[in-house]
Amino acid sequence: MKIIISLGIWLGSILLTVLLYFVVLVLTILLAPFDPKKKITHRQCFWWSNALIALNPYWNLEVSGLENIDYQKTYLIISNHQSMADIVVLYKTRMQFKWVAKESLFKVPFIGWCLRLIQHIRLKRGDYTSIKQVYHQASLWLRKDMSVLFFPEGTRSSTDEMREFQNGAFKLAIKEKKPILPICLKGTHAAIPKGSWIFKTKVAVKLCVLAPIETAGLGPGDFAQLRDTVHSKIASALG
Fold first, then answer.
1. Which whole number is the average pLDDT over 210-222?
2. Fewer CB within 10 Å, N or C, the chain?
3. Helix (H, G, I), strand (E, B) or coil at 70
4. Strands 76-79, 180-186: parallel, antiparallel or unpaired by DSSP?
């Protein structure tokens, strides 16, 4: 039975992602002059996220802290990173954002093509020029009142224990004078089976939006304190 259910989950997920791509493609073409920030195409990921989560009987998702989001504000969003399921879950915030994704994801059929069309930010790890371009693009989006989402651990953690945060996102938040919105993800590391395609156990996944942290009044030298404060708050929420 688990094999049949798992097969249905993967097949359904693929079909939903293919459908998402064609919807995004058509809307990108039709709305090109009217949707420069790709907000309408980004919203299509909301129903995609809902459908993927509803499709999987092994996922039990709890969302909290949405009252901490002011949808009229622009944030530099900071989240811990545990698995490929993170971005599916993060769309439950219903926020407009551009997220920084590794270059290899942009090459994945359909999902990577969606990333390109919606104009998310591509990062080539270990490439100094690419890293500079990432922060330049993120800065431009923030100045256009578009939030940007970073996973400052740099790579996924296979447990609920976080890695150290890299500095760049916090320097950027201070430079652009944008508040940081910390988000804590818990349990997503177990949401996708490792070493197998079969879903075997139910997984409790939690998304918690924490209170924003203002950067007004901070100077360039305050990035380390800001970084450690955000890390501490997310780690505390992880418990």
1. 96
2. N
3. coil
4. parallel
Q: DSSP per residue over 24-40, as a string?
A: HHHHHHHHTTT-TT-HH
Ordered by start, the domain boundaries in the chain are 2-238
Six-digit token pair at 36? 């420069």
Tokens in use for 137?
């693009």
Report helix angle 223-238 to 168-176, nearest 10: 120
Q: In what order do the strands lie in the sheet with 97-102?
A: 59-64, 203-209, 180-186, 76-79, 147-150, 97-102, 121-123
> pLDDT at residue 156 above 80?
no
| Nearest residue to 185 (alpha-carbon basis) of 168, 162, 155, 212 | 162
**Confidence at residue 158, expressed as pLDDT on a 0 to 100 scale:** 66
**Spatial separation of the C-alpha atoms in residues 238 and 161, rounded to whole Å:** 8
| CA atoms of 152 and 80, how far apart (whole Å) | 7
- For 58, half-sphere exposure in the C-beta direction (CA atoms, 13 angstrom radius) is 21
Calculate mean pLDDT across residues 205-221: 96
Q: What is the pLDDT of residues 115-128, one digit of tens each?
A: 999 999 999 877 78
Contact 71/97 with Cβ under 8 angstroms? no
Give the C-alpha separation, 120 to 45, whole Å.
Answer: 13
Q: What is the CATH number of domain 2-238?
A: 3.40.1130.10
Count Cα atoms within 13 angstroms, Cβ side, for 10.
11
Question: Whole-model pTM?
Answer: 0.94
What is the arithmetic mean of pLDDT over 159-164? 82
Per the structure block, which two tokens stand in for 67? 């009252």
Rounded to the nearest integer, the mean pLDDT of the chain is 94
